[in-house]
Amino acid sequence: MMKTQCISSDRISSLPQNIIETILTLMPIRDALRTSILSKKWSGPTILKFELDFYKLGMITEFDQIILGLSRRSNVKDLIIDTSNSFYKLTTSFFLMQGLESISLKNCNFEPPVNFNGFSKLRNMCFENVRVHAEVLQNFLPNCPLLEDIRLLDYEEEYVEENSFNFVKFFQCVPLLHTLAISENYMKFLSSGGMPSKLSTSLHLTYVCLDVCLREQDVISSVLCIIRSSPNLERIFFQMYDNEKLPIQESSIKFDDLQDDLSLTLDHLKSIDIVSFSNIACEMVFVKLIMGKSPILKIARVELSDNVSFDEELKILREMIRVQIPRASPSAQLIIERPKKKL
User: Fold this and answer.
1) Rounded distance, CA 122 to CA 99, Å?
2) Among residues 24, 200, 225, 231, which one has the fewest Cβ atoms lying within 10 Å of its Cβ?
3) What pLDDT digit, counting tens, does each position of 168-201 carry?
4) Per-residue model confidence as pLDDT tens digits over 309-328
């Protein structure tokens, strides 16, 4: 008697890829994402970029499962996680994603496991309101040897403990950096203790976006050190903030003394933007310093702070007409603007 051999088959996996993708697009988002946990063959096309919005999902368990599914792929290069108003502790699976080249984290707890060795392919990193200890940051950055773009924005000030991790150590960790954005609290944090006049090794920075207060001496020394140590700077963006509790220190307004400083050169600078300009005397002196040191500068744009009245604006304009600002670049334009209205 002949026996019939029964061969079980996975009918879904045997379907053409375009049909699998059509099925997935018709499924509820929760179920579609869960398929990547069950079978790699069911998870649609190759995923190079993935964006997760916790506010839209609203499911911590599913969120962890998605990260787990992505960690099983070696092809995910760009990951964006935005948890809106709730802090999300990154699951261990996140730190297994060794193919990552770009990460953008918002409102997350960044606590790597003890055996974490960094992301060897990471080039771009943005932390926005991410809870991370100074020691963790100091150990993490050197283990990402290809980092070129770092943006550290808005953290909870009370969360960061006292530390010895400042800009000097920071730049030692990221020797290939060419783009840097640092917001106010991180600026205070990394400027702690001040900076030397110039770093022993030149930086490769071409663009810096910094929050700056010209009343804080440590911040001033950090800004000047970064500028002096970055001979290839092409663009500068400064968001000014003012700490009225602090007096304007004498050493902070003597930028005129730096006009004859040959170690301060901005031979490649093409543009500078200064936002929230509040007409503190040292701010205008700082603009004069930059314009006097930038031989190919095309534009210097100054956006006034909300607290600058129309009368004060007229005073600023009259002062500029009365006292000609020395310009290393004869074609450099100085533009003064009112703050843009928020929609």
Assistant:
1) 8
2) 200
3) 999 999 999 999 999 998 998 899 888 898 999 9
4) 888 888 877 777 666 677 88
Is residue 252 within 8 Å of 224, Cβ to Cβ? no
Going across the sheet that includes 78-82, the strands are 49-53, 78-82, 102-106, 124-128, 149-153, 179-182, 207-212, 235-240, 271-277, 299-304, 333-337
Cβ(63)–Cβ(30) below 8 Å = no
Query: What is the C-alpha separation between 103 and 123, in angstroms, rounded?
Result: 9
H or E segment to which residue 18 belongs = helix 17-26
- Give the residue among 19, 26, 16, 24 at the shortest CA–CA distance from 47: 24
First to last CA, the chain: 82
Quote the tokens at residue 309.
């009245």
Between CA 343 and CA 340 the distance in angstroms is: 9
pTM for the full predicted model: 0.82
Of how many residues is the chain composed?
343
- CA distances (Å), origin 123, targets 104, 120, 179, 318: 11, 9, 11, 46
Distances (CA, A) of 150 to 171, 174, 198, 244, 285: 11, 9, 21, 29, 29
For residue 244, give Cα distances in angstroms to 155, 208, 218, 249. 22, 25, 16, 12
Residue that has been written with the tokens 């960061």 in this structure: 160
Phi, psi (deg, nearest 5) at residue 121 = -105, 0
Distance CA 144, CA 174 (A): 8
